[in-house]
Specification:
Elements: E1 4-8, E2 12-17, E3 20-22, E4 26-35, E5 38-47, E6 53-57, E7 68-69, H1 70-76, E8 81-84, E9 96-98, E10 101-104, E11 111-116, E12 121-125, H2 131-136, E13 139-143, E14 148-151, E15 154-155, E16 172-179, E17 182-188, H3 200-209, E18 214-218, E19 226-228, E20 231-232, E21 237-238, E22 241-242, E23 246-247, E24 249-253
Antiparallel strand pairs: 1-2, 2-3, 3-4, 4-5, 5-17, 6-24, 7-23, 8-19, 8-24, 9-10, 11-12, 11-13, 14-15, 14-18, 16-17, 16-18, 19-20, 21-22
Length: about 260
Amino acid sequence: MTGSIVKNTETGEVTTDNNSYIDDNIKITINEYRENDTTIYVADVEVRDSSYLQTAFANDTYGKNIVDETSSIASGVNAILAINGDFYGVQRQGFVLKNGKIYRSTSNSNEDLVIYKNGDWEFIDEENTDLEKLLDNGAYNVLSFGPGLIDNSSIIVSVNDEVDKAMKNNPRTAIGKISDNHYVFVVSDGRTSESTGLTLYELATFMKSLGCEMAYNLDGGGSSTMYFNGKVINNPTSGRSIKERSVSDIVYIGY
């Protein structure tokens, strides 16, 4: 499809179509893969600096059981690209630090992904971490689901590793870092006759094939949703239907 060019006072010239978005600060390319009888959607993202990687709450509000569809949250913050986040709202514990502000500091013993304001990534154990110190050291977002999939370009989950929230083959959502300011957002379909879904190890192996030096598993199953340029581009499964599940939060690229 031929890209359209529009003028935006903040971003300069924007070129966009069904599979790409380019402006002076952000470049996104969408690719579709077929692995392990599963359709996988990959957004390759390059940004001028890490400030364009952000998070947002449903209804712009922190709290338990405050939910909305990924597409609705994304639209509300003018996201170019978004995936569902860590669904903090279904947990009573677990760190919640979003866009530089602490909302919950009680530990859930999770392995978290810390994204620092300078663009660095780090895995931490909540049980042995002081969230206030993390914030003082420049932490900007903490994603609290897990587990970590890749660290130092090596897979760090085994074939048998799973999480109680998402056992065996399922729709999956993950985020990966290839290099500074170069990310991948990944969502796989699952639980349908067309797409089986992935195990955590299959997801990690796929993320490694993309060149990730770090990668982290987010909420999956019925939550797994990718939104790009104003529409949902995967096939989220909620119950027996192809539709979005409402979630607590998203990870997105935008202004």
